[in-house]
Q: What sequence folds into this?
C-alpha cells in the first residue's frame, strides 16, 4: 500500500488542481448536513471502499455529514444488505453494490426512489452518463434508484508487443482468441527467461468466473440489441442455456485453460491481476481497471504494452427457434461489424449506491448528496483515471477527454486506444445487460457459478452442465413465480408492454 | 486410573482473589445471603441450563421446523411454507444428490466388493454382540448398535458407489474424509511428538510452548497463510518445487491435492491440542511401572506397547472424541483456501450449508445442517459408547 | 472395536545386536537417553519446531515486504534478499491516517470486548454448573422435561410459522409449563440424575454451529439485537459452555470434599464456600479452561459473520475481508493483521503456560 499512499498524494494534488471546480457544488450548500451520519456498506477496500472513505472526508468538510464506510467480504455483501434491510435492523443507510442486485431490493420496497433528487440536481449532469448506465443501470421501471460510481463491462486486453513479434492481429472472434493464445503460449513475455501464458482468466469458484462464461456466450446468444437479453426467453422465461451457442461458449472457456497458468482454477481476479501486471499474459478478459493499472510503474511491467478491444465476437450465432448455430446474415445480426457479431457484456453492471428507504429523510438527503458528489464529473472524471480506486469510466466526458488520461501517465496513443475500446463497447447497441431480476444471486452466484466450476474441473460434461444450469434456473424461476419474473425480466431489458 | 494429585496446583485456601472477597463480603451480611443460600441449588445450575435451552435447544427445534419449510426473505420479514421432507428428499434422492452424497452411477465391481465387505463386517460385529460373548445384551444396546450399523452401512455404500466406482464425492464424503484421515494423521503425529517430548530431554517447556502456538491462530488466518505457503510460484517452497520439476504443479486444481492441503492446514492447527493432552497423560504414567519394565529388560517399543499405551488409552480415546467433534465443523479453511473448489471437491458440509444460507435459502441450509447433525451425532455417540466408555470401563 | 489385550508379561527381547549400534542406542543409565537416541529425538523435535514456526516467520517477513517483493517470487531474509519496509505496519498503525486505523481499531476493540466478556461469562456460568453437578444431587422429573420440550416445539412453531410475537409466545409457554409441571409432571415418577444432565450439557458441543445459527440470527433479529456485542457474547458463551462444564466438572470432583464440609460446618453458605474455598483450589484448572475458551472465541468466524454487520465486526472478519484488493490479496497488510491478532493470545498463553503444562486438560479427558 506504499505506492497507494503515493497515488493518494498525487490524488490530493490533483484535487487541489481541480480546485474550486471540485468543491463548487458543495460549497454552495455549506454545512447543509451538519450532524447527520451516513452508514455505508460495501466490499473491503482499497477498491471501491477506499475512495468512498476519502471522498467522505472531503464531503464532511464541505457539508458536515459524517460518512462511515463499513465493509464485508464480497460474497456476503448482498445477503448482509438484504437481511439488514428486510428484517428491519436498518443499521445501514447506503449500500454500494452491484446494480444487478437492486431489482430484488427495489421490488421488496427497500430502496428509496431518487428520481426527484436527480431532477433537482443539475450538478450530476445526468445526460453525460453513458446511455446504458443512465437508462438501464441506474433505473428500475423508469425510476432512478441507483447512482453509479463505477462502470463495469468486460473488454479484451492484449499485449501489443507479443502479438507484433509473432505477426498476429488482435483476435476478432473467439476462435481467433484461441488461435492467438495457442500461438504465443509458452513464449517469454517479460524477459525473465520463463515461459509465459497465452491467456489468463480468473476461473476460481465462488468469485467472478461465471461472468466470463457469459462474456463468451453473449456473442452467440444476443444479436438484436440489449433488449433481446442473453439469459431467458422474454416471454416464457425459458433459460437460454441449452443450445449450441452456450455449448460452444463452454468449450471455448475450457479450451483457454490449455494456455493459462496451471492453477487458473484457483485464481480469482485479484490473483490474476498481479500475473497480468508482471507481464506474463498475452490475452485476457477484464474490466476497465487494467488500463489505469497497467500504467502504474510501481508494479506494472507492461506500461504502454497493453491495448484493449471490444470483446471477441462470432460469425455464427444461435437461431433461437432451433437452438442451432447458423451463419450471420444482415437480418440475423443487424449490429455485426464485418460479419462478426459482437456482444459486449456489462458484467456486474457497475458498483452503484442505493439508499435504504427506511432511513431518516435527513439521512436520505445527505446520502443522495454524497452519491451525487461521487458521481459528478468533477470527482468521478478524476477518480476513474486512478487504477487503485476500482472505478471505471461510465460518463461520455470520461472517454472523450483524452487529456485526463494523459495526465495520469497514459501515452496519447494508449489513451486513445483504451478509450476507443470503451467507447466502442459502451456505444454498441448490442451491449448485453447483466441479469437484474430477483434471485440474480441464485441464478448466477449459485447455479451458473457452481456448474461452470464443475465443468471446468472436469466433473461434468458440456451437456450435463447445460442441463444442470437449465434445471437450476427453472427451479429458481418457479420459486419466485414465473409470471412475475418474466415481467421483471422484460422491464429490466427496457421492454415495455 | 492415575491419581489426580498432580493436577491441582498451589492449593492455599484463604488466598482469595480480590473479587471474591467483595462478593462474599456483601453476601455475608443480611437476608440476601440467606436467600441466596436457600436457592443455591437452583442458582448454581440455572444460568447454564437456561442459556443452553434458549440458545441451543430452541434453535435446534427451530432449525428442524425450518428444514421442513420453504422460506423466502421479503421486504419487512420472511414468509414460511410447510413442505414436509422435500428439502431432505432433494439432498438425498433429488436434484442435489450429487452435491450431498456424490455422483451416483453404475456401481463398479470394486464398489460391490467394498459394500459386501462392509456389510459382512457389520453383520459379524452385530452377531458377536448378540451372542453375548463380550458382555450383557440389552435392548438399548441392541437398538443403538443397529442404528450405528445401518448408518455405517449407508456410508460404506456411499463410498462404494462414489469413491470406489470412480465418480465424485459429495460434501458428506469430503467431510468424512477430513474427519477420518485428518484426525487420524493428527493423532499419530500428536502422539509421536508427545512421546518424543516425554523422553528425558532438556527444553521440554520450550517445545511444549512452541508446539502449542498454532492453536492461537484464527483458522481464517491459517487459510491465507497456507495458501501463501502452498503457492508453487511465489511461495517459500517455490525453489524446491522448481527443483523437483513441479514448478507448474497446481495443488488447487486436483481434488485430492486440494483436500490434502486443507488437511495439512487443519493438522498444523490441531496437532498441538492432541500433543498437549497426550504429553500430560504420558507424564502421568507412574515412573515405577516404566522403570520396572526397564529392569525386566524390555525394549523401548515394548515398554510403550505393554505399559505406557494401556495407561494413556482412555485419554487418547477422549481427546480423539473432542477432535472428531470439532473436525465435523471444519469450514473456515476450505472457505478461505479454495472456496470449495475445484468444482465441489473441498466443500465440507458446514460450508455447503453456509453457501445455501448465503444464497438466501435458509430452509435448504437448515436441512443440510440437520443431516450433518444426524451423521455427527450417530458417529460421535457410537464412538463414545463403544470406544471411550468401554476403554474407561476396562482400564479405569 | 477390538479389545485391548491385557498387559501380559513380555518375552525378553533378543539382546544380541551389533555392538556398534548397541553402544549408540543403549542408555548409560535408566532414565537417561543414549547418544543416538537423543540425536534422533532432538532432530525430530527441531524439525517439527521448524514446521510450526516457519509460517509465523513467513508472516512476519511478509509484513515487511513491498508488493514487489511478494510478487517477484520468494525471498527469505530481510536485508539479504529484500529490503524490509514498514509500509504495511505504518498503514495500519499510523495515527494520522484516518481510514486504515479506524478500520482496524473498531474490529480490534470489538474482538477484545466480545472475547473477554464471553470468556468471563462462560467460565463463571460453566464453572458454577460444573461445581453444582459435582456436589449437589439433582433429580428433575422426566415428565417435566417432556412437557418442557413439547411446549418449546409449540412455541417455536407459533413464532416461526404463524408469526406469533416472540415475547407473547414465550410468556404463554412459560405459564403453561408452570401449570403443567405441577399436574402432568406428577404422573411420571422417573427422574434423571446428575450424570445425565452432565452428558446433556456436554453433548451440546456436538452441535455444529451452523445448525443453530440461523434461528439464533432470527431470534436476535426479532428483539433487534443483531450486530450488537451482546448478541455475539451470548452466543459464544453458549457455544463454549459445554467445554467449561466438561473440563471443570472432573476437576471439581477431584478436589477433596472435607474442606468444603468443614467450611459449611462453620456456617459458610454454598456461594461463600464456592468462591472462598473451591475457586482458589481450582485456580489452575480455571486458568487453563479460560485460555482455551478465550482462544476459541477470539478466533471464531462463522457465528460472527452471521450476527454482525458493521458495528460488531470482529477481527477474523477483517482478516477474511483482506481478500479484496484489486492488486491481489494484500498479503502484507493481511500478515500485519494476523500478527497483531495473535499477539494478545500468545501473551496470554505464555502467561498461563505453566497451567497448561500441568496437564489441566487431562482432568476431564480422563472421562
A:
Amino acid at each position: 500500500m506504499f505506492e497507494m499512499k503515493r497515488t493518494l498524494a498525487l490524488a490530493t494534488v490533483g484535487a487541489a488542481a481541480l480546485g474550486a471546480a471540485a468543491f463548487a457544488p458543495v460549497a454552495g450548500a455549506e454545512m447543509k448536513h451538519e450532524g447527520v451520519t451516513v452508514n455505508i456498506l460495501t466490499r473491503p477496500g482499497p477498491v471501491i471502499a477506499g475512495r468512498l472513505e476519502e471522498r467522505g472526508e472531503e464531503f464532511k468538510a464541505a457539508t458536515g455529514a459524517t460518512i462511515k464506510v463499513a465493509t464485508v467480504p464480497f460474497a456476503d455483501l448482498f445477503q448482509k444488505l438484504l437481511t439488514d434491510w428486510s428484517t428491519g435492523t436498518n443499521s445501514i443507510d447506503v449500500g454500494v453494490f452491484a446494480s444487478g442486485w437492486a431489482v430484488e431490493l427495489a421490488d421488496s420496497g427497500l430502496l428509496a426512489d431518487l428520481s426527484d433528487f436527480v431532477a433537482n440536481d443539475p450538478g450530476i449532469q445526468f445526460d453525460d452518463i453513458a446511455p446504458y448506465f443512465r437508462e438501464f443501470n441506474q433505473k428500475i421501471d423508469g425510476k432512478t434508484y441507483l447512482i453509479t460510481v463505477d462502470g463495469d463491462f468486460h473488454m479484451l486486453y492484449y499485449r501489443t508487443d507479443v502479438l507484433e513479434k509473432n505477426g498476429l492481429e488482435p483476435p476478432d472472434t473467439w476462435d481467433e482468441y484461441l488461435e492467438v493464445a495457442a500461438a504465443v503460449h509458452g513464449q517469454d513475455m517479460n524477459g525473465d527467461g520463463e515461459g509465459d501464458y497465452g491467456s489468463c482468466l480468473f476461473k476460481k469458484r465462488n468469485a467472478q468466473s461465471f461472468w466470463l462464461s457469459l462474456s463468451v456466450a453473449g456473442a452467440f446468444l444476443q444479436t438484436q440489441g440489449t433488449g433481446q437479453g442473453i439469459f431467458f426467453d422474454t416471454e416464457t422465461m425459458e433459460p437460454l442455456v441449452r443450445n449450441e451457442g452456450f455449448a460452444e461458449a463452454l468449450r471455448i472457456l475450457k479450451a483457454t485453460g490449455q494456455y493459462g497458468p496451471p492453477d487458473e482454477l484457483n485464481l480469482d481476479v485479484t490473483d490474476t491481476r498481479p500475473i497480468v501486471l508482471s507481464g506474463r499474459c498475452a490475452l485476457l478478459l477484464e474490466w476497465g481497471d487494467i488500463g489505469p493499472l497497467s500504467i502504474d510503474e510501481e508494479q506494472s511491467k507492461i506500461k504502454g504494452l497493453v491495448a484493449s478491444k471490444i470483446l471477441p465476437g462470432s460469425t455464427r450465432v444461435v437461431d433461437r427457434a432451433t437452438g442451432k448455430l447458423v451463419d450471420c446474415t444482415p437480418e440475423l445480426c443487424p449490429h455485426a461489424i464485418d460479419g462478426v457479431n459482437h456482444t459486449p457484456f456489462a458484467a456486474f453492471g457497475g458498483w452503484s449506491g442505493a439508499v435504504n428507504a427506511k432511513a431518516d429523510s435527513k439521512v436520505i438527503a445527505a446520502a443522495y448528496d454524497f452519491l451525487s458528489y461521487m458521481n459528478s464529473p468533477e470527482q468521478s472524471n478524476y477518480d476513474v483515471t486512478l487504477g487503485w480506486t476500482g472505478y471505471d469510466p461510465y460518463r461520455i466526458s470520461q472517454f472523450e477527454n483524452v487529456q485526463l488520461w494523459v495526465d495520469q501517465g497514459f501515452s496519447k496513443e494508449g489513451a486513445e486506444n483504451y478509450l476507443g475500446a470503451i467507447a466502442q463497447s459502451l456505444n454498441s447497441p448490442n451491449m448485453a445487460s447483466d441479469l437484474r431480476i430477483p434471485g440474480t444471486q441464485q441464478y448466477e452466484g449459485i447455479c451458473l457459478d457452481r456448474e461452470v466450476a464443475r465443468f471446468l474441473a472436469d466433473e461434468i460434461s458440456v451437456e450435463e452442465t447445460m442441463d444442470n444450469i437449465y434445471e437450476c434456473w427453472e427451479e429458481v424461476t418457479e420459486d419466485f413465480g414465473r409470471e412475475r419474473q418474466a415481467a421483471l425480466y422484460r422491464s429490466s431489458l427496457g421492454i415495455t408492454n | 486410573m492415575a491419581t489426580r494429585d498432580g493436577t491441582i496446583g498451589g492449593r492455599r485456601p484463604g488466598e482469595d482473589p480480590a473479587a471474591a472477597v467483595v462478593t462474599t463480603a456483601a453476601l455475608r451480611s443480611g437476608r440476601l445471603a440467606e436467600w441466596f443460600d436457600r436457592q443455591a441449588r437452583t442458582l448454581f445450575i440455572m444460568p447454564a441450563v437456561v442459556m443452553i435451552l434458549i440458545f441451543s435447544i430452541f434453535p435446534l427445534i427451530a432449525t428442524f421446523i425450518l428444514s421442513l419449510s420453504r422460506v423466502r426473505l421479503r421486504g419487512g420479514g420472511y414468509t414460511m411454507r410447510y413442505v414436509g421432507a422435500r428439502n431432505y428428499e432433494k439432498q438425498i434422492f433429488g436434484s442435489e444428490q450429487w452435491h450431498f452424497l456424490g455422483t451416483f452411477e453404475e456401481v463398479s465391481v470394486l464398489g460391490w466388493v467394498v459394500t459386501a465387505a462392509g456389510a459382512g463386517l457389520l453383520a459379524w460385529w452385530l452377531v458377536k454382540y448378540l451372542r453375548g460373548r463380550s458382555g450383557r445384551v440389552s435392548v438399548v444396546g441392541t437398538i443403538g448398535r443397529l442404528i450405528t450399523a445401518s448408518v455405517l452401512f449407508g456410508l460404506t455404500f456411499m463410498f462404494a458407489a462414489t469413491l470406489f466406482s470412480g465418480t465424485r464425492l459429495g460434501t458428506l464424503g469430503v467431510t468424512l474424509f477430513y474427519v477420518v484421515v485428518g484426525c487420524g494423521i493428527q493423532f499419530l503425529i500428536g502422539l509421536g511428538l508427545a512421546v518424543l517430548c516425554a523422553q528425558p530431554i532438556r527444553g521440554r517447556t520450550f517445545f511444549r510452548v512452541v508446539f502449542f502456538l498454532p492453536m492461537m491462530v484464527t483458522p481464517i488466518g491459517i487459510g491465507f497463510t497456507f495458501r501463501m505457503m502452498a503457492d508453487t510460484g511465489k511461495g517459500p517452497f517455490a525453489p524446491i518445487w522448481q527443483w523437483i520439476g513441479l514448478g507448474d504443479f497446481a495443488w488447487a486444481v486436483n481434488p485430492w491435492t486440494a483436500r490434502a492441503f486443507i488437511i495439512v492446514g487443519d493438522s498444523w492447527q490441531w496437532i498441538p491440542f492432541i500433543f498437549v493432552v497426550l504429553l500430560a497423560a504420558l507424564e502421568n504414567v507412574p515412573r515405577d511401572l516404566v522403570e520396572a519394565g526397564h529392569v525386566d529388560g524390555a525394549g523401548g517399543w515394548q515398554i510403550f506397547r505393554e505399559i505406557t499405551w494401556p495407561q494413556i488409552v482412555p485419554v487418547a480415546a477422549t481427546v480423539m472424541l473432542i477432535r472428531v467433534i470439532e473436525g465435523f465443523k471444519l469450514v473456515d479453511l476450505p472457505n478461505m483456501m479454495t472456496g470449495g473448489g475445484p468444482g465441489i471437491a473441498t466443500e465440507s458440509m458446514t460450508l455447503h450449508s453456509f453457501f445455501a444460507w448465503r444464497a438466501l435459502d435458509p430452509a435448504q441450509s437448515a436441512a443440510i445442517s440437520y443431516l450433518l447433525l444426524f451423521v455427527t451425532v450417530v458417529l460421535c455417540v457410537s464412538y463414545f459408547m463403544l470406544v471411550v466408555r468401554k476403554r474407561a470401563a476396562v482400564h479405569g | 472395536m477390538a479389545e485391548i489385550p491385557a498387559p501380559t508379561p513380555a518375552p525378553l527381547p533378543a539382546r544380541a545386536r551389533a555392538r556398534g549400534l548397541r553402544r549408540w542406542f543403549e542408555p548409560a543409565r535408566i532414565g537417561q537417553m543414549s547418544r543416538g537416541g537423543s540425536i534422533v529425538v532432538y532432530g525430530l523435535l527441531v524439525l517439527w519446531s521448524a514446521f510450526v514456526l516457519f509460517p509465523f516467520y513467513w508472516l512476519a517477513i511478509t509484513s515487511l515486504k513491498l508488493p514487489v517483493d511478494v510478487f517477484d517470487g520468494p525471498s527469505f531474509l530481510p536485508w539479504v534478499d529484500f529490503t524490509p519496509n514498514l509500509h504495511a505496519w505504518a498503514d495500519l498503525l499510523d495515527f494520522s491516517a484516518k481510514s486504515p486505523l479506524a478500520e482496524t481499531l473498531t474490529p480490534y476493540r470489538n474482538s477484545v470486548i466480545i472475547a473477554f466478556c464471553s470468556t468471563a461469562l462462560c467460565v463463571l456460568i460453566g464453572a458454577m454448573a460444573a461445581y453444582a453437578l459435582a456436589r449437589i444431587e439433582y433429580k428433575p422429573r422426566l415428565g417435566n422435561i417432556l412437557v418442557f420440550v413439547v411446549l418449546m416445539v409449540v412455541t417455536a412453531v407459533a413464532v416461526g410459522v404463524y408469526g406469533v410475537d416472540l415475547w407473547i409466545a414465550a410468556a404463554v409457554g412459560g405459564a403453561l409449563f408452570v401449570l403443567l409441571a405441577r399436574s402432568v409432571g406428577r404422573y411420571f415418577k422417573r427422574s434423571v440424575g446428575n450424570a445425565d444432565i452432565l452428558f446433556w450439557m456436554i453433548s451440546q458441543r456436538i452441535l455444529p454451529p451452523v445448525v443453530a445459527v440461523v434461528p439464533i440470527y432470527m431470534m436476535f433479529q426479532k428483539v433487534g439485537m443483531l450486530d450488537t456485542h451482546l448478541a455475539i457474547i451470548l452466543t459464544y458463551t453458549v457455544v463454549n459452555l459445554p467445554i467449561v462444564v466438561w473440563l471443570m466438572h472432573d476437576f471439581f470432583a477431584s478436589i477433596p470434599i472435607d474442606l468444603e464440609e468443614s467450611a459449611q460446618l462453620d456456617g459458610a453458605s454454598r456461594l461463600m464456600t464456592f468462591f472462598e474455598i473451591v475457586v482458589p483450589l481450582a485456580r489452575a484448572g480455571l486458568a487453563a479452561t479460560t485460555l482455551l475458551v478465550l482462544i476459541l472465541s477470539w478466533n471464531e468466524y462463522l457465528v460472527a459473520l452471521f450476527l454482525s454487520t458493521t458495528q460488531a465486526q470482529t477481527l477474523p472478519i477483517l482478516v477474511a475481508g483482506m481478500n479484496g484488493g484489486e492488486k491481489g490479496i494484500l498479503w502484507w497488510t493481511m500478515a500485519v493483521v494476523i500478527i497483531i491478532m495473535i499477539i494478545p493470545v500468545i501473551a496470554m498463553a505464555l502467561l498461563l503456560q505453566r497451567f497448561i503444562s500441568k496437564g489441566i486438560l487431562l482432568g476431564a479427558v480422563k472421562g
